[in-house]
Amino acid sequence: MKIKEMSIDLETYCDVDISKCGAYKYAESVNFEILLFGVSVNGGPVTVYDLACGDTIPDEILAALADESVTKWAFNASFERVCLSNWLYNHRPEYFKGYSIPSDPAGSYLDPSSWKCTMIWSAYLGLPLNLAGAGAVLGLENQKLTEGKDLIRYFCSPCKPTKANGGRTRNLPHHAPEKWDLFKKYNLRDVEVEMSIQKRLARYPVPEQVWDEYHLDQEINDRGILLDMGVVNNAIAFDARSRSALMETMQDLTALDNPNSVAQMKQWLSANGLETESLGKKDVAKLIPDTEGSIREALQLRLQLAKSSVKKYQAMRNAVCRDGRAHGMFQFYGANRSGRWAGRLIQLQNLPQNHMPDLAEARELVRTGDYDTLELLYDDIPDTLSQLIRTAFIPRSGYKFVVSDYSAIEARVLSYLAGEKWRSRVFAEGKDIYCASASQMFGVPVEKHGVNSHLRQKGKIAELALGYGGSVGALKSMGALEMGLTEDELQPLVDAWRSANPNIVQYWWDVDAAVKTTVKQRITTKVGNIHFQYKSGMLFIHLPSGRTLSYVKPKLGENRFGGESVTYEGVGSNKKWQRIESYGPKFVENIVQAISRDLLCFAMQNLSFCFICGHVHDEVIIECSQDVSVDAICSIMSRSPDWMADILIRGDGYETEFYRKD
């Protein structure tokens, strides 16, 4: 029988904590084992190969794993592919076949181009990113066995030695035969559930272009990004030394046993005449300007101690693999409302910014372990270490990074969709959108370092906060008050921005009306080049790229203000499946971010001949030889796709010997 398709699920053992270190480091451990290999061939019944008890996987199945003509399915297929890559390489190397060119670290893994992932399919349709959740929402007849977590805890990781278990550090099949039999049923059921999801979703196939994007994503994760472990390890050591010194100073100043204790610190502040409800970082920062003497010093010390910079360095140490690189940092379709990526492990998407003019000098002090000079030159070591986090990512020896990003991509897409022509002219002429926005809002010329330059900050905060229906609350959450704006200025700022952008405001409510009409009358509507469709209990928003956004079981209801609103089922901010309320501006935000993501995907595919090793929303990080031209990379980034040929996008870039914000 010729194998055309396989559905696979693995149960594995390892002494590495996968939640902290990721699948790549997990699978390369010398103590990694595949315990159970569940597989269905060509849609047939599931067979479980019990490798822990001596079963062997048939040669024709092993050969199919590296055969690009055989489609391999799994739920979270990245895990199965990475684990099998390492297992084949170590145990059956005659069946291992890498991909890419010899100088590319991605070539150490099985080619992802013949793998497909049911989790990604679920995410594409707005379903949960876990097998049990997806199965439950779809109401499958075969559900994931609920005993799975306990069985995984028992067999798949080390156990504590006790008198009762004879001092062993691992549970093997013969220690609990009944549990092991249930574990095999669990493995078999997972393959069945994964196949049931495929059947249930067959009417809503994932476009091939999205699978192409997924395969590129897997290649980027396989390639990873190199870490300067000298910087990482010294930063962790410096942080410990700095925190110890700060804590000692704080104890001397306050005479408290534990100045980190919120209760003790509040009591000390109260005894010194300062009452406060919260000691969160933002609240402490607000208190400092109005204090003096020992109180001010104590608050400043607390703010320094609150820096969480070391957590990122610890995440780097946890994730780094034998090749010195961090792999698996990007979750494809992690944000299923827009299809954007989510960060994993080190979370490249939310690294602190760097504003130090002497970044390279400070970095070198950390790299070489010169704490004394760092302490002498920089008052705030936690802040310095925080700003240096990005610089721990480096290219290989003889290579450089080219970092290229889109200038104001969401503002450009929103202006394009809404037909706000004055904004499009600003982009076409290469002008500053914050200055232009302030000028449009206040009716006076605004230049960045010239006339009315003080208004640019108001234009900037308005642009960042108000594009998706935000009001006074959005301005506050974006830091308007910290930037020097007063409470009385906020509502007029909202009014001025909306008056300056009437087409955007109209676009919000045109989309709102279209969604409500589609859900209510179950007909297809459109606003510009965006189409809205109701089909089989789903709301689909069709994007110009050919991709769709999916909303499960939409219906009309009443919002807290007594008006009509659309709700749908999805994963809420609490990570649970629930009914979510939405409205026009929020749908517009999903659409704009989704199109921005599609534009970045288009650029990444055009740049796929390069070694892309990272990306963040509107930015691509490329590891390349010294002779690669930044202008050439930016030129490729600036190309518009056929599906939005007249969008005005611009790629800016720079080269660097370590990752940073330009």
Briefly, what is this?
About 45% of the residues lie in helices and about 15% in strands. With about 650 residues, it is α+β, with helices and mostly antiparallel strands.
Helix content: 40-55%
DSSP strand count = 20
Low-confidence stretches: none
**Largest sheet: spatial strand order:** 12-13-14-15-16-17
What's the overall average pLDDT, rounded?
A: 92
- Please state the CA-atom Rg, rounded to the nearest Å: 27 Å
Specify the biggest β-sheet.
6 strands, antiparallel
Per DSSP, what share of the residues sits in E-state strands of 2 or more residues? Answer: 15-25%
Question: Helix tally?
Answer: 25
Distance between the first and last residues' Cα: 57 Å
Q: Which structural class should the secondary elements be placed in?
A: alpha+beta
Overall geometry: globular
